[in-house]
Write a structure and sequence with these properties.
alpha+beta, four-stranded antiparallel β-sheet, 20% helix
Length: 66
């Protein structure tokens, strides 16, 4: 069975942020980020390729936040 984990950027989950704030979730499989989900509350807006320029920028911000 393969492992799959979803991590949320810490600044996006603060209670003060509210439920409608946009945030990003990194989807990992076997220790590798396979997708980045852009979310608004519980609604999935789009999937971003972590290899794209935008994906790399988001991951860089995500890694410095942790």
């Amino acid at each position: 069975m393969s492992e799959e984990a979803v991590q949320t950027a810490p600044e996006a989950t603060e209670e003060a942020a509210g439920h409608d704030e946009m945030h990003y979730q990194a989807v990992e499989k076997e220790g590798t980020v396979t997708a980045i989900w852009e979310m608004q509350g519980h609604k999935h807006l789009r999937t971003i390729d972590p290899r794209s320029n935008e994906g790399k920028q988001i991951l860089a911000l995500f890694e410095t936040a942790g």
